[in-house]
Specification:
This protein has a domain of 94 residues: Orthogonal Bundle (DNA polymerase, domain 1), CATH 1.10.150. The chain has seven helices and two strands; from the N terminus they run ααααααββα. The longest helix is centred in the N-terminal third of the chain and has 47 residues. It has a two-stranded parallel sheet with strand order 1-2. It is mainly α. Helix 1 packs across helix 2.
Amino acid sequence: MTKEAVLKEFEALKGVGKAKAKLLYDNGYDSLEKLKKAKIKDLTKLKGVSEKNAKEIIDQLKVKKEKPVKKTDEKKEQAEQPEKKEEAVEIVEQQKGAYHPKIKPQLNEQQKEQLVIRRQIKKRTPHFLRDEGFRYKRIPKNWRRPTGYTSKLRINLKYRPSKVRVGFRAPKIVRGLHASGFEEVMVHTVKELDTIDPKKQAVRIGGTVGTKKRLDIAKRADELAIRVLNMGES
């Protein structure tokens, strides 16, 4: 290596300027390898190099020696990291596989078609209000058949809200069924589950049933493959 290249390497060290780099070079340290072999006592003999400065130079050179070893360790860690990621992915896949889909009813083609029609009817069905319910706050927001002789809702004046009519009713085959297609049955005890047909009926646990009995009913329903409509994902 040329003198200029060696001096640049010395100047890259903390606490070493141009003057100290020349001083080190003139005293026989014409490469980094020789400077690495030097001791603190040897450097303090030189004019302008204190004990603190000598320690800084030697510590920096020691760190440079250890750097290649650290890089190899980092490479090993990076090589091991993908394996850990793969393990994590496998765990997630196992958790996904443990998911149980909701139980569905056994319906014929006609019932499936009628359920679709019922959903379409429900979308276009308005919220029915009783006579003058749209005008006064004191009137409850529910439906009552208009009976007054002078009632404008009864005689179907233009700007009045819609009345309950036959055309808004659901098809007869699927009338009264749950949105899933099951027939709802109210249940209060575990024994009542024995009379349920899991292919056509689903249960709804009564509101007066306590938590302990509710869990017993849900456990027994899971054993019998019966869908519970008011127990979260079950």
